[in-house]
Amino acid sequence: MERRPRVAAVLPAGGCGERLGGCTPKQYCAVLGRPLISLTLEAFGRVGWISDIVVVVAAESVDLMKTIVRKYGHKRVTLVEGGVTRHRSIFNGLRVFIEGHSLGPAVQTPEVVIIHDAVRPFVEEDILLQVTQSARQHGAAGAVRPLVSTVIASSSDGCLDHSLERAKHRASEMPQAFLFDVIYKAYLQCTQYDLDFGTECLHLALAYSQTKAKLLEAPPDVWKVTYKRDLYAAESIVKERISNHLCIITNMKEEAIQIGFLLHENLKPHIKHVKAISSSMCKTLHDLQSIFQGQCYNFVCINVKESDVEESRKVTDLLQTANIGSYPSVVVSVHLAFPEQSSNGMQKLTGIRELAKEAQQSDILVYGLLINFSKDESQLQGRAHEASAIIAALIKDRTPALAGQLMLA
Amino acid sequence: MERRPRVAAVLPAGGCGERLGGCTPKQYCAVLGRPLISLTLEAFGRVGWISDIVVVVAAESVDLMKTIVRKYGHKRVTLVEGGVTRHRSIFNGLRVFIEGHSLGPAVQTPEVVIIHDAVRPFVEEDILLQVTQSARQHGAAGAVRPLVSTVIASSSDGCLDHSLERAKHRASEMPQAFLFDVIYKAYLQCTQYDLDFGTECLHLALAYSQTKAKLLEAPPDVWKVTYKRDLYAAESIVKERISNHLCIITNMKEEAIQIGFLLHENLKPHIKHVKAISSSMCKTLHDLQSIFQGQCYNFVCINVKESDVEESRKVTDLLQTANIGSYPSVVVSVHLAFPEQSSNGMQKLTGIRELAKEAQQSDILVYGLLINFSKDESQLQGRAHEASAIIAALIKDRTPALAGQLMLA
């Protein structure tokens, strides 16, 4: 953008999610333990050029929402009480920029306002930027997607009247963006009927501000969580995202380095980004985070000494202190069993169980993995191969019930 | 239905699934290892009153499809080569009932033909019956769903022209059903343009057979797997479905019965249908299947004797013999460790690993679970509680990489 305009966002989140079939409004449904709306706020939080995020919530959910904002550290968020319909809620959100509100400090009127649903958590900065730029140029802009099904009009007797040509129609999605004056004026002038039964902001801009919105083909990520199956999909997407990065932490003992190297090689087919570092290079949380220039949720710690979880404890301590935990982290505590030593699996297991129990309170899942060390290169390679499949599965599943267990490769 | 009409189905499955972003056409994408289209064929296979299922596949996929039909034992299926567009494929499917085809025996012309997508695997008998009955009455009928997003029409400059009133429009889904003569005549008479660019069978029936289709509000299950996220959702739905039933098999030893009873109680919050039976009552596969009057994919076997997997082996043998495996089965091999005996965890583990390795070839996942037995009632209760959470997680995740591992409660 040539000059940075002031951009704000309004997120209507007052809906009751009846299509989901449950009692919890869908924006508060948990995805890996975290409310859906918190994912959406995180997506907006990553976009530095959006100055204010006005979230419109039902009166009875204001306290819940305050807790969510505090717990996940969402910034630039202003809460506003919703109306009884979607349009009334959005209008309440917009009014805040003019009239202020009772729930917090005043927010400055933006040049452009983005409207987005709380239940479209996978929106990316790129499409937010596109709608914003288009809104500056055209007054209004909205994300659209091709129709998945043909749309048909029914006659009053419940029969087919006609079907619409798929190529000429689009599904109107979110985000949408407007020059603030365009959409605010439209809401001021629209009818009570519009406020009660309308659904489409682009329509209001057209009808009451004579502004033809620019339609932008959006990526599939902008999809709206509507049904229970969408929550399943959201959970799988989040799991996949946070399983992309893995850090292997090893000390400088010969066997640890050897195993670390083998795991590094064998984990590559399972996990996109794998890095290995020496434990001496990760004394602070900053060290851990700098590995991937961002949040990493997965760690493999190689412990060499018999019956001890020293390296793993160091990492969980670092993670606990920082409380980065937007999602559960996984620490796989790898131990080596040497044939010449009488292996004491049970003793190791006790240490891991204790560590896991403690860490789980901070949403860190610790799993143990015992690798039978072998001097035979190809045997060790086989075990590293098996160990990597186990590690990848533990990271992918992220199952709390299995924390503290000791796997064997 | 008063008189049973002859009903057949045509499943167009020639598409290339470009919206999924992968190279595999989506009907062949794996859901828990099983091609999506096989789920759809299973759904139709359960409906006894559909006499023929004509699957229209691309020429290059005929062999693959034959393998799928054989592997999963689909009955009443006729394969037909597809055309270059959806409508041409459906037409090819319909022609088989009149002209016969080269790939197999003739099929009899039905009174009603159901058209359904191969990539809508969760269709239920109820909606199939509804469209069939409506088709007999009205000549044509189709499943519809409310619109998730507002539909808009764009002008030639890529701007909003107008938005459609959501309440008056529906998404046209599948299944649809037609009197055979109605839809066949429509395909015979429609234009080349229709065959190349049309998408909607209901439209053809209206335009060329003057038949107004009855629209039936369908449950959300009829949804079409379109994007990658839909595959995630499908996988979660299948996992949930096959995790609903659990059979606990125990012998008549006192401790086994006690643990079996505790697990039964503690598993109920996790798994909808839990039954416990004595191992003497399950000597044949028929015994196992009769427990739930249908397929059960989850078993807990309680082994009392030290370092032996006898009960678990019996069950995996039964499952292996029968090869019911449409999906991977889970067998949790529960073992009791008694404080007065020197527990030999490693030896038990060896037995479980061997059994698991063998069983995995038949798609049976064996996991070990060691419960420290205690005479103290409340301590044992606590362990049964933990054990149940582990069992539920193993069943829910169904992770091949963890087969053969020994968990501890």
Topology readout:
The structure is a homodimer of 409-residue chains.
Chain A: E1 7-13, E2 30-31, E3 34-35, H1 36-45, E4 50-57, H2 62-71, E5 77-81, H3 86-99, E6 112-115, H4 125-138, E7 140-146, E8 150-154, E9 160-163, E10 169-179, H5 180-189, H6 192-197, H7 201-209, E11 214-217, H8 228-242, E12 245-250, H9 254-267, E13 273-278, H10 285-290, E14 298-303, H11 310-322, E15 329-337, H12 345-360, E16 364-372, H13 377-397, E17 406-408
Parallel strand pairs in A: 1-4, 1-6, 4-5, 7-11, 12-13, 12-14, 14-15, 15-16, 16-17
Antiparallel strand pairs in A: 2-3, 6-10, 7-10, 8-9
Provide a descriptive summary of the structure in words.
- 2 copies of one chain form a homodimer.
- With about 400 residues, chain A is an alpha/beta fold.
- The N and C termini of chain A lie far apart (about 55 Å).
- In chain A, helix 3 (about 85-100) crosses helix 5 (about 180-190) and helix 5 crosses helix 7 (about 200-210).
- The mean pLDDT of chain A is about 90.
- In chain A, the strands form 4 sheets. A 7-stranded mixed sheet of chain A has the order 5-4-1-6-10-7-11, with helices on both faces. In chain A, strands 13-12-14-15-16-17 form a 6-stranded parallel sheet, with helices on both faces.
- In chain A, about 40% of the residues lie in helices and about 25% in strands.
- In chain A, a hairpin with a 5-residue loop joins strand 8 (about 150-155) and strand 9 (about 160-165).
- Chain A has 2 domains: about 5-235, Spore Coat Polysaccharide Biosynthesis Protein SpsA, Chain A; about 245-409, 3-Layer(aba) Sandwich (Rossmann fold), CATH 3.40.50.
- Chain A is elongated, with a radius of gyration of 26 Å.
- Chain A has helices spanning about 35-45, 60-70, 85-100, 125-140, 180-190, 190-195, 200-210, 230-240, 255-265, 285-290, 310-320, 345-360, 375-395; strands at about 5-15, 30, 35, 50-55, 75-80, 110-115, 140-145, 150-155, 160-165, 170-180, 215, 245-250, 275-280, 300-305, 330-335, 365-370, 405-409.
- Chains A and B meet through strand 7, strand 8, strand 9, strand 10 and helix 7 of A and strand 7, strand 8, strand 9, strand 10 and helix 7 of B.
- Strand 10 (about 170-180) of chain A pairs antiparallel with strand 8 of chain B, so a sheet runs across the interface.
